[in-house]
Amino acid sequence: MTPPTDTEAPADLSVLIVDDSPEDAELYLRLLRRGNPRTVRIHHCPLGEDGLAWLRAAATPPDCILLDYNLPDMTGVEFLRDHHPPCAVVLLTGAAGEQIAVDALQAGAQDYLNKGSLSAELLQRGVDRAVEKFRLQRELQASRERMAAVLSSLDDAVMALDHDCELMYVNEEAERQLGARVYHPLPGWLCRTSLHLAVEEVLASGERRSVDLSDETGRWFDGRVHHSPGGVTIVLRDVTRARHERERLRLLESVAVSAQDAVVIAEANPSLYPGPRVVYVNAAFTRATGYTPDEIIGQTPRILQGPDTDRAVLARISDRLRRWRKVNETVLNYRKDGTPIWVNLSIVPVADERGWYTHWVSVQRDVTADVRRTQFEEARRNVLELTSAGRPIEDVLDGLCQLLALSFPTRAPTAWLKHDQQLTLAASSAVLPAEVREYITAQRRTIDLTEPVGVTQTAVRTGQPVIIENIADSTEVRMGDLLLRNDLRSLWVLPICSADGQDTLGVFTLFSVHTGAPTASEQRSLHDILEFAATLLDRRAAQQQLQRMALFDGLTGLPNRALYLEHLRRALSETHRAAGSAQLAVGMLDLNRFKHVNDTLGHTAGDELLRQVGVRLRRALRPSDVLARMGGDEFTLLLPFTNRERFETGIKRRIDDVFHEPFMVSGQPLFMSCSLGLTFAPVQGQEAEVLLSQADMAMYDAKRAGRTVATFDPHATKGTPVISLESDLHTALTGQEFELHYQGLFQAGARHPVAAEALLRWRHPTRGLISPADFIPLAESTGLIVPIGAWVLCEAARQAARWQATHPGLRVNVNLSARQFWAPDLLQHVTDALNASRLNPALLTLEITESVLLDVPNAAETLEQLHGLGVHLSLDDFGTGYSSLSYLHRLPLHGLKIDRSFVHDLGEGTGAAAKIVRAIILMAHALKLHVTVEGLEREVQVAFVEAVEGDYLQGYFLARPLPGPAFEQQVLGWPAPDPAQLTHRPDVPASSGSPHTH
């Protein structure tokens, strides 16, 4: 026991005396207190059971027990052996004998003293020695327990051997794995392996040895033999699974090395940020990404991701990795040099024999070419749809820039449109450096083509690409310093030339951080895209020309009938909603004696006169007024006003001023006059066609009266021929005065009949055959077109059904007017005609004009219902309406018919009309619509339509409208007639203005 220091008071000594002699107990107390600096506390128990009871009740055990060997109820050895006191014990006896001492020490006593030779010093030393020994024994036992717990918790087998290789210690894992037992020989297989030799070497040298060994079952162990006091310690670790895993990875690596796809092996954890660490990549990975094994191993595969990698795809991958599921995704990665690549990513988890996932194996296949091909086709379709839908040219060029960006991902494209002697920026890439993009959009939005130098001017002037392989070596690029400052090294300028090569429509520029010229494959891609762009821009120009021809008069540049009616309907709607005195004047103006000018001076002079009249009228009217040319020498006016009296006075004065001065035509002055008829809305009506008819009547009143201006008088029209014709029209249907004529539609190329268009004719009992141009508008304005149209449907379907017996598959085409679409029973009329005739619905084609789509709010819904009956739908007079192209891709149409107004100049094949017809056919076929061209009167026109792959032909060159029997004999029963015999036109000319009139 360590003596206390000067500043440390000695601790109390607590002693339990178990002795049946009070005298002896008193003696022990005196001896302990004699010369002892500590306070000695004594408790005396005469019996062994008393001592045990006191120990059980005591809050803390004493420091030492002085235990008499002979007690009345038990011996001291029994006290120790059976109850194991929790403190130091000194056994006291009056009898001598070594056996008693041995028994006491084995039973747990720390010391043994003879009562006959006790002294204070001897007793004090015995107690101190016993207390210290008990403390050391207790600490040693705790250390042993801790060591046993540690060794038992190891997954490794631990054994201790003495110098004779006898087992002195084994942990639980050694017992479980090896069957080893303490004081038993080593298992036989251990003695027969290299372990035995390693033990002998360690015993001889004292140095550590490592050894690999396996048992009879194929288990592999990693063994380590350490020198220890009295022998050696052996640690065996089962590495069977690890060896098998290494073998699997070795086999996998042998496969991956020769694989053409990139292979990446990464640790299984962590799946979240920063991601698993790469442990292996094959050579294909380096070729695909540019990263060497040294640069990627230890990193996360996320190093391959970039700014445009789809976050949604990455989220799906992370989710599947968290759930240990296979991954199969296409993702955008980036090479080491920043080049984007698309890869098909297949990731699978690899488990060990216990089912624990240890690694991810990823196979990455480069699918950049496939993805870009798909994206290119999608972008190409998008550009076609933008063009077909009539979207702004900037949208179309932006789509073309996307095509270039997909084909050349390292280059940033811009698109410029040519207008006269200027290029205007129409689209630019978002990947251009901000400074460059700001410069070309804000500073140089236009390029002056009259300047003699410049790479863009050269490309436009020559029609050939200009390739600047290295801007640093060129003096032609004016913004070269700016480009180099933004790390742009090369520039390709590519002109977009028209199909005939006569004009440059625009320019593409491609900037790149790389130097060099296009390769052979890149040149082919550029050529294809430039051809595609030229086709679209040509088509766009033709579409704009078509739009202008559809809405404006080609001679005067004024709005035509279709656009005028659009303005009139809009104005009527606004006037109806407006409060107050707002009114509209609808005017019809006709030149007096215009036919005389044509007959005497020629049509060229007449055309010049009409142009000058249009210019003067436009100058005389207000900006809010609408002036249009209806045809011939007729002009229509739309004039808003609030005070009628002031308006009538003012308009007469302005018209008189227009015709006060002579017109200079063919070098000579011409004094002309006009007749203007006016009607007023909403006073006289709110129907556009009715108002025009009223203005027409007022104009004829002005002519008859010799006045410049006349207003519509509803009372003055009673008894006129128009009223008489209207009255007769009401009885024509019941009087069976209508009949159908049929004009054939012929297959282009073969020129055999495939359909017959039903055309309505009125054979008046006294007036004879009345022109459809005279009675169809009247039937539409009165609403009689609805029952007449129902009769036409039934009669045409009946005739087509009868023809099926001799000409199966022959279709019949029937025109529908806008007024029929207003009627709620149109669908029923078509159904009744099909049921009554039992005609296959697919053999009935209903032709509609664009006025139907403009005038009838629910026309699209009605067309869908008709389409549901199985009949075919075709757009008639295509190109004469408003925004016609926008209908093609959203209505259930099967075909369209190009209006006869485009056919006249088709013979040359190079004029504007030819380009428009070619563009319409190309566009229709792209939308899977067949195309009929009507009004064909010459062989050269037919040949042109066949050359541009039109589908069906119609016109007097092939067949004129004929009654049913004559159609059967001349068209169906005999070969096509000699074209020379078809030059004579019938007495009743066909009109393209309304259905049933051809």
From TrEMBL:
Keywords for the protein's UniProt record, in alphabetical order: Kinase, Phosphoprotein, Transferase
Pfam families: EAL, GAF_2, GGDEF, PAS_8, PAS_9, Response_reg
Domain EAL: 722-975
PAS domain sequence ranges: 143-179, 244-300
Modified residues (4-aspartylphosphate): D68
Residues of the PAC domain: 325-379
Domain Response regulatory span(s) in chain numbering: 14-130
Leader peptide range in chain numbering: none
Keyword Kinase: yes
GGDEF domain ranges (all copies): 582-714
UniProt region (Disordered), positions on chain: 978-998
InterPro entries per UniProt: Biofilm_reg_signaling, CheY-like_superfamily, EAL_dom, EAL_sf, GAF, GAF-like_dom_sf, GGDEF_dom, Nucleotide_cyclase
NCBIfam families linked to this entry: GGDEF, sensory_box
PANTHER family: BIOFILM ARCHITECTURE MAINTENANCE PROTEIN MBAA, DIGUANYLATE CYCLASE DGCP
Protein name: GGDEF domain-containing protein
Organism: Deinococcus sedimenti
